[in-house]
Amino acid sequence: MSMTKTFEIAVISGDGIGPEITTATSKVLEILSDKYSFSFRFKEILAGDRALKETGHALPSNAIDEIKKCSCCLKAPIGETARYVVLPLRQELNLFANIRPAKTIPGIPSIHSGVDLVIVRENTEGLYKKIDDISKECAINVRMITKEATERIMTVACKMAKERRKKLTIVHKANVMISCVFFRNVCLEIAKNYSEIDINEIYVDNAAYQLVINPQQFDTLVTTNMFGDILSDEAAGVTGSLGILPSSNLGQDIAMFEPVHGAAFDIEGKGIANPTAILLSCSMMLDWLGEKYSISDAKQAAKDLENSILKIYEETNIRTPDLGGKNTTNDFIRELLSIF
Ligand code: ATP
Fold first, then answer.
1. 106: which DSSP letter?
2. CA separation (Å) from 204 to 97, 99, 222, 229, 261?
3. What does the pLDDT look like over 182-216, one tens digit per residue?
4. C-alpha 243 to ligand 1 mean position (Å)
5. Which of 87, 42, 49 shows the shortest CA–CA distance to 67?
6. Is the pLDDT of residue 220 over 70?
7. How many whole angstroms from 310 Cα to the centroid of ligand 1?
8. Fold of the 110-239 domain
9. I need a labelling partner for 179 at 20 to 30 A (CA). Which of 1, 69, 102, 123 fits?
10. Where in the chain do CATH 3.40.718.10 domains reside?
11. Ligand 1 atom at shortest distance from the alpha carbon of 78
């Protein structure tokens, strides 16, 4: 008798358009799992503006423990309380790698075509470590870069580059900052274990410039927390709409997947939210689950989901209003399900 793997997914349906895109996504995941040899059990985790209203806490005390019991977390955007939810989640689950792919989708207008890069951002330290002080005359933020966190993020980046086009760019400012010299040196030490990858370096200011004028030259970029934060938003702008970009936050044994966009209160409840970003985040989630539990079917399903989304943009005129169209979230989902 063959056993079907059940993935336990903690779901934060969030605020604004969050609940509508999450409902649409659950439907897609259920139908996708029927086609493959795995299934899902979704565990709703209350967090965000709604949680604050109902319980007095944006991130109720049992939320982290509930997420830890699951395979991973799928998170829709949070509204006003985002920083009281996202930062504690990243810290308490030790989600040390923020993965932000920026890929142009044929059929969606963008400044450049043929961009396919991923930014691997260290997510726990650097200038965001909150080692700071302020007085009337002065304020400081200490930029802490540790060997452990740098080795960890570089290893993630190398593994990713190996699976992609085998090109990895280390982004730093080692001509000015000693902490960047350290980051670069630790990265280069790890790089010695990956001779099959072409590894180069670039100063962060030049990286910002090159991303605008020639983003096609990049494949995988690895960098520190704040540089990664800024460059990934820039890369997003180069490739197209906010409604299409996915992301993941990876920890040791746990991960959280989320669209890059926010709660989009201006279109809440209208049924016109673009579900692409959260669906592509699900594709990243399936790939990660497949890797974690050595289930090739889940990796196959990840590709299937991504390719089916690309097909809609390449072969149909179905577009939600953020991309200039007149279609609804449900029109998009209906088309997607007909492709599976
Ligand atoms: P945050 O600070 O939480 O990231 P924000 O205020 O910067 O949020 P969003 O909530 O992402 O921005 O919205 C910015 C604009 O993009 C809004 O006009 C919103 O309607 C639009 N938008 C964002 N996501 C989507 C989506 N999935 N589908 C359609 N439009 C979207």
1. T
2. 19, 18, 11, 12, 24
3. 999 999 999 999 999 999 999 999 999 999 999 99
4. 7
5. 42
6. yes
7. 21
8. Isopropylmalate Dehydrogenase (3.40.718)
9. 102
10. 1-96+265-340, 110-239
11. 3
For residue 146 the two structure tokens come to: 């540790």
**Under CATH, which number does the domain 1-96+265-340 receive?**
3.40.718.10
Name the amino acid, one letter, at 114.
G
Task: Kindly report, residue by residue over 70-124, the tens digit of the pLDDT.
Answer: 999 999 999 999 989 988 898 899 999 999 999 999 999 888 999 999 999 999 9
Q: How far apart are CA 133 and CA 142, in angstroms?
A: 9
Residue with tokens 């709409």: 241
Contact between 335 and 279 under an 8 Å Cβ cutoff? The reply is: no
For residue 140 the two structure tokens come to: 């400081």
Give, rounded to a whole angstrom, the gap between the first and last alpha carbons of the chain: 26
Question: Exposed/middle/buried for 273, CB within 10 Å: 0-12, 13-18, 19+?
Answer: buried
Residue-wise burial string across 231-262, b where 16 or more C-beta atoms lie within 10 A, e elsewhere: bbbebbebbbbbbbbbbbbbbeebbbbbbbbb
| CA proximity to 252, closest of 41, 68, 125 | 68
| Distance from C-alpha of 187 to C-alpha of 202, rounded to nearest angstrom | 13
